[in-house]
Amino acid sequence: MVKETLDAPYSHYLLDAELSQKVDHRTTEEMDIDGFTLMEIAGSSAAKKILQHNKQLQHNVFLCGKGNNAGDALVVARYLLQHDARVTLVFISGTDDLSKDTQKNLKLLRAFDKKDRITIYEKWSGFSAPNNYNFIIDGMLGTGLTSDLRGDYAKAVGWANQQQHPVLAMDIPTGLHPDSGEKMGKAIEAVRTFSFGGRKQGFYLNDGPAVTGTIDYCDLPFPNAYKEDCKTFALDTDWVSLPSYTPGKHKYDSGVLHIVAGSEGLTGAAIMAARSAWAEGLGAIIIICPRGLLSVFEHNLPSVIKKPVGKKEDYYFKESHAEQVQDILQEKESSMLLGPGLGRNTDTISFVEQLLTTTTTDTIIDADGLWCLSQLEEWPKTDQANWILTPHPGELQKLIKDEIGEGHQRLNTVRKLCQENNTTILSKGMPGIIGTPSRKCYLTNYNTNYFARAGSGDVLAGKVSAFSALGLAADESCAAALLNGQQKLSSLQKDTNKIPEPTDFI
Ligand SMILES: NC(=O)C1=CN([C@@H]2O[C@H](COP(=O)(O)OP(=O)(O)OC[C@H]3O[C@@H](n4cnc5c(N)ncnc54)[C@H](O)[C@@H]3O)[C@@H](O)[C@H]2O)[C@H](O)CC1
Ligand SMILES: [K+]
C-alpha cells in the first residue's frame, strides 16, 4: 500500500452540494439541532467577522432569494441593524414563498427595527439603490442552486457586478456551481465569501477562484464523522508543514536522488531540476546520462555526481542501457527522477519501459518520461515502486488518450487514474491537483498561472523529487513542492515588482 501522510483539518475539507446537504440534514435529524439555530450560527459568525473589519457601517444592500441562503443574509442584517446600520432588502422572488426559517428571520428582523431603518423591495423591478452604502450582501442562492440564472436573478447579479461596492457572499457567490466551480450562466463576483460549515469544492475550480474572493470559513456544529465521505481538500500552508533542513552526518545520510535524464540538445531541463533539488539540502544528487552528454553536465553541475552509461557516441538512452542504470540505482537507497530532456527516440521508449519494469526505486516521472509512458500499451509498474507522475494538462491528456477538459473534469480524471494505477499524480494547471491511490485529492488555492512558463515544470519536478529523496511520502512530497513554490511566489510579490521567472522558484 502506498503510504499517505497528508491529513487535512476539517476546515479544509471541500464539500460538494450533495455532501453539504447531507451533513446539514443529518445534523438536524440525528442531532436534533434545528435549521433556525444553524442559520443563526452561520449568519451571526459572518456578521461578527464583517463588524470586526468594518467599524463604521452606515448602510448595506441585501440581495435575497427565497431559500435558506437568504435567511443567513437576514441574520447578518439583524446584527448590522443592532450596530445602527441601515438595511435595504431586495427579495428577488418576493416574500410570499420564503423558506420557513427565512420567513421567521424576516419577522424577527422587523421586530428589531425600532427606528425605521429597514427598506424592503418585494421585487427586483422597483429597486433603486440608496445613494451611499457600504456593501452588497449576496443572499440570493447557495447550495440550493439547480439551474442557470435567469430573469431577475441574472439581472441582479449583472447589476451587482457593475457596482463599485464590494460584494460579500453568503456561503457561495450566487450562480457559482458548488461542485464544478462553473458559472451557471452568470455568477456574482464577491470580494469575500463566508462559507458555512464547509468550504465548497467549486471555490477552487474553473471560475471559482475568480468570483469567490477571500474565503472565510465559518464553523457550524456538524459532527466530524458526517464529513468522512469527503475526498477533496484545500492545500494550504495553514496546515501542511514544509520540511526544514537538517544537515546529515554523511552525504549519503541525508537524501540521495538519481536523475535519469538528457538527450542531445535537451540537457537544460535536467540542469534546472538538479539545481532545484540541490537547493533543498540533499546529501547527493547523481545524474545518470548517456555518456556522450557527460561533458555538458560536468560543465554545468559541479556539485552533482555523474554516472554516464553506454558509449562515448551515445547521445540518448537506449534499451541496452537499462541494466546498467538499474545497477547504479541499486548502489544507494534513493529516489529517481526519470524524464527531463530524455527526448522521444523509439529506443528511449524501450529504455523507459525496460527500466520501469525492473526498478523498485520510488520514481518521479516528468516531461519526456511521461511521453514515453504514454506510448506504451500498459504501464510497466512493479508493485514495490511508488510512482509520482507530474503531468501538465497536455501530458495528462496523452496519458489517458482522451480529452480531459478543465478543472472539475480534470479532478475526476486524476482521481480515477490514481486509484486504478495505485499511483500519485501532481496534475499541473489551475488549480494544481494532487491525486492519491486512496482517491483523496488536494487542490491548490493560489494563482498557479505564474508557473506556466518553460522551466517551471523542471523546477517543480526537482522539488518533488528532493522531498521524496528526503523521505517524505509521495502525497506530502507533492504538497511540499507546490507550497514551496507558493511561498517563493508570495515573498517575491511582497518584495519586488519583478515578473517571476522559473529560476526564482529554485
Ligand atoms: N450548510 C448548512 O447546513 C446550512 C446552510 N444554510 C444556508 O442555506 C443554503 C441552502 O439553502 P436552500 O434553501 O437549500 O437553498 P438556496 O437558499 O440556495 O435556494 C434554493 C431556492 O432557490 C431556487 N433556485 C434554485 N436555482 C435557482 C435559479 N437558478 N434561479 C432562481 N431560483 C433558483 C430553488 O428552487 C429554491 O427555492 C446554504 O447555501 C446556506 O447559505 C443555513 O442557513 C445554515 C446551515
Ligand atoms: K449566495
UniProtKB/TrEMBL annotation:
NCBIfam families: yjeF_cterm (TIGR00196), yjeF_nterm (TIGR00197). (6S)-NADPHX binds at G142, T143, G144, L145, T146, S147, D148, Y153, D171, A269, G341, H392, D458. Its EC number is 4.2.1.136, 5.1.99.6. This is Bifunctional NAD(P)H-hydrate repair enzyme. AMP binds at G457. One of its GO terms (molecular function) is metal ion binding. Homotetramer. In the N-terminal section; belongs to the NnrE/AIBP family. In the C-terminal section; belongs to the NnrD/CARKD family. InterPro entries: Carbohydrate_kinase_pred_CS, CARKD, Nnr, Ribokinase-like, YjeF_N_dom, YjeF_N_dom_sf. The lineage of its organism: Bacteria, Pseudomonadati, Balneolota, Balneolia, Balneolales. Residues 20-228 form the YjeF N-terminal domain. Binds 1 potassium ion per subunit. It catalyses: (6S)-NADHX + ADP = AMP + phosphate + NADH + H(+); (6R)-NADPHX = (6S)-NADPHX; (6S)-NADPHX + ADP = AMP + phosphate + NADPH + H(+); (6R)-NADHX = (6S)-NADHX. GO terms for biological process: metabolite repair; nicotinamide nucleotide metabolic process. Residues 234-506 form the YjeF C-terminal domain.
